[in-house]
Design a protein that fits this description.
The structure is a single chain. The chain is an alpha/beta fold. It contains 20 helices and 30 strands. An eight-stranded mixed sheet has the order 12-11-8-6-7-14-15-23, sandwiched between helices. Strands 5-4-17-16-18-19-20 form a seven-stranded mixed sheet, sandwiched between helices. α2 (28-35) packs across α3, α5 (109-125) packs across α6 and α13 packs across α15. The longest helix has 18 residues, at 579-596. The protein is globular and about 70 Å long. Bound molecules: adenosine-5'-triphosphate and magnesium ion. Magnesium ion binds at residues 260, 412, 504. Residues 536-618 form the AMP-binding enzyme C-terminal domain. CoA binds at residues 190-193, 308, 528. Its EC number is 6.2.1.1. It is an enzyme of class 6 (ligase). One of its GO terms (molecular function) is ATP binding.
């Protein structure tokens, strides 16, 4: 497959001079890492405190099963908490927590150490030990981070399940990992009211005989049913001893299992281990966000149930001794200004969020962020989906006031940490491009035969060399691990002896060699013999001033093989009633044809109020394709709001 390269972008944004001069990472690190990749990673591993040094950096003798920092020992929680306290920074704020109803908590590193130690003592008393699995099903409250760190501290492997998931999703994840304990809460606040979690856990636990105990945090105070497996957090953890000595674990000790978002199908239980994972999350959090732990206030808006929450709320920032904001609720509670109010209140300097939120903010209108003082911001990040160039520009302009670098970070649950991203003090970024692989990472864009495509070409995104925070396997399913990631190219496909990781995403390299992510390979459309990415057409649509967000799919077509069907959310101020709506769809079809060429002109455009998204906010194009092809819908269990699909299907029928 070679992907058409239709979208061209000429705007570039070099780093602000002062930021470049003071940056944690300078341009020289790319060559340093190229010269000796393993030496570069060994140097990064020294950011951490190891109780026993490693003998060898990488063991790749049994590919695709990697081992990093072999023989080394460390404790993840010690690295994230204790050592900052020991270094005299115990009074530094680790977490400024903001509850949805407006209640707050401030937790210093010294207090975090106490909480994590108490939780570790309680887990031990409940019979949880090294290697046991613990399911965590919590809202965005500090106890979520405490629970994860307590597991890490005693060597138990956590499996965090997003607090919005159903009984079925929770119980299958508990069963897959054979977990012994669930840590949950009575509920959490969502959209202005308490939303219960405990009943879901009760039903799930009834299906999971492996669970011996359920630890329940009281957050909302709502009534809960009680079984003899249940223990209150405040009657156990908060009464437990505050001293706990962290034991070292092997660098390859399992740290956590996390199931992928399920955008493309059944989630996979991704296994991450200790030393390599913490090395790369710590390194990337320092490099990509240029973190200055003494002065920055960092805020990542992800949920702890996703990998972004694991790597860039818990392990990366805390290992670096950062001060961060953690927010419990939704961006529109009590009003659509909540995010900007939080940035203003805590003087957030680094903000890391997702394109879905940026496009939602675009839809809500520029005047909302304009009402707040956002001058503390100095770096903006994006993750989760390709960011359309116009959304990137909107983010930089309306949130960053044209001063802040925007880092578009490409990575996956499987990669554990950021892999492709600008460096804010080095890279002249282009809106919509993740730019280049970080130092020490070898990303490539290849054709069907694993040959690198030349500049100007498009194809498959692959990773050619193992990296420290790579997944070690799919939990309990080595075969699926090999089949999914290693069997498309290279040795795993019977071609040569190089093991090549296939990410599942399409990408292109522009004339300067910068990398542009073009969405899932499975979503690529075949129009009259041309492979066209959904991302480019969506970006062309979003570049129209009336459009906030769009999703594009290829639907079977008798003449062209597939034809482009686009679903478009107009910006808040756009009139779409009657003829105005008709006219807008005509204009948009022409706009795309003008921007990308006639081949990319959508056959049909539907104006919609919402798009189907996963719980992590990613567009589920496969469902839209089902609609466009008049099929019944596939698996909808990871869908955020199933009513959206009913509305879209009804709309589709009336427009033939
Ligand atoms: P599943 O694998 O179960 O379908 P998922 O791929 O959505 O779920 P994640 O691991 O959360 O689960 O998401 C990783 C994917 O998100 C990447 O493979 C890519 O498609 C997309 N992605 C993440 N960041 C970016 C980015 N900066 N630019 C483009 N795409 C991105
Ligand atoms: Mg994926």
């Amino acid at each position: 497959m070679s992907l058409e390269n239709l979208y061209s972008e000429t705007r570039t944004f070099p780093p602000p001079e002062q930021l470049a001069a003071d940056a944690n990472i300078k341009a020289g690190e790319y060559t340093e890492a190229d010269d000796d990749r393993l030496a570069y990673w060994a140097k990064q591993a020294e950011r951490l405190t190891w109780t026993k040094p490693w003998d060898e950096v990488l063991d790749w003798s049994n590919p695709p099963f990697a081992k990093w920092f072999i023989g080394g020992e460390l404790n993840v929680a010690y690295n994230c908490v204790d050592r900052h306290v020991e270094a005299g920074r115990g009074d530094k704020v680790a977490i400024h927590w903001e509850g949805e109803p407006g209640d707050t908590r401030t937790i210093t590193y010294a207090e975090l150490l106490k909480l994590v130690s108490q939780a570790a003592n309680t887990l031990t008393e409940l019979g949880v030990g090294a290697g046991d699995r613990v399911a965590i099903y919590l809202p965005m409250i500090p106890e979520a981070a405490v629970a994860m760190l307590a597991c890490a501290r005693i060597g138990a492997t956590h499996s965090v399940v997003f607090g919005g998931f159903s009984v079925d999703a929770l119980s299958t994840r508990i069963q897959d990992a054979d977990a012994k304990l669930v840590i949950t809460a009575d509920g959490g606040y969502r959209r202005g009211k308490p939303s219960a979690l405990k009943p879901t856990v009760d039903e799930a636990v009834a299906l999971c005989p492996s669970i011996e105990n359920v630890l329940v945090v009281r957050r909302t105070g709502q009534d809960v049913a009680w079984t003899d497996k249940d223990k209150w957090w405040h009657e156990t953890v908060e009464q437990a001893g505050t001293e706990h000595e962290a034991q070292p674990f092997d660098s390859e000790h399992p740290l956590f299992i996390l199931y992928t978002s399920g955008t493309t199908g059944k989630p996979k239980g991704i296994l991450h281990t200790t030393g390599g994972y913490l090395t790369q999350t710590s390194y990337t959090h320092n490099a990509v966000f240029d973190l200055k732990p003494e002065t920055d206030v960092y805020w990542c808006t992800a949920d702890i149930g996703w990998v972004t929450g694991h790597s860039y709320i818990v392990y990366g920032p805390l290992s670096n001794g950062a001060t961060q904001v953690m927010y419990e609720g939704t961006p529109d509670t009590p009003g659509r200004d909540r995010f900007w109010q939080i940035v203003d209140k805590y003087k957030v300097s680094i903000l890391y969020t997702a394109p879905t939120l940026i496009r939602t903010m675009m839809k809500w209108g520029d005047d909302i962020p304009a009402g707040y003082d956002l001058s503390s911001l100095r770096i903006l990040g994006s993750v989760g989906e390709p960011i359309n160039p116009e959304a990137w520009i909107w983010y930089r302009k309306n949130i960053g006031h044209d001063r802040t670098p925007v880092v578009d970070t490409w990575w996956q649950t499987e990669t554990g940490s950021v892999m492709i991203s600008p460096l804010p003090g080095v890279t002249a970024s282009k809106p919509g491009s993740a730019m280049t692989a970080l130092p020490g990472i070898s990303a490539d864009v290849v054709d069907d035969t694993a040959e690198s495509v030349p500049n100007g070409g498009g194809g498959f995104l692959v990773l050619r060399e193992p990296w420290p925070s790579m997944l070690r396997t799919i939990w309990g399913d080595d075969k699926r691990f090999i089949d999914t990631y290693w069997s498309r190219f290279g040795a795993g496909a019977g071609q040569g002896d190089e093991w090549i990781y296939f990410a599942g995403d399409g990408a292109k390299r522009d004339e300067d060699g910068s990398i542009w992510l073009l969405g899932r390979v499975d979503d690529v459309m075949l129009i009259s013999g041309h492979n066209i990415s959904t991302t480019e057409v969506e970006s062309a649509l979003v570049s129209h001033p009336s459009v906030a967000e769009s999703a594009v799919v290829g639907a079977t077509d008798p003449t062209t093989g597939q034809a482009i069907v686009a679903f478009v959310i107009p910006r808040g101020n756009v009139d779409t009633a009657g003829d105005a709506g008709e006219q807008l769809t005509v204009d948009l079809r022409n706009h795309v044809a003008k921007k990308l060429g006639p081949i990319a002109k959508p056959r049909q455009i539907m104006l919609v109020a919402e798009l189907p998204k996963t719980r992590s906010g990613k567009i589920m194009r496969r469902l839209l394709k089902d609609v466009a092809e008049h099929r019944s819908l596939g698996d909808v269990t990871t869908l955020q709001d199933s009513a959206v699909m009913d509305l879209i299907s009804a709309g589709m029928k009336t427009t033939k």
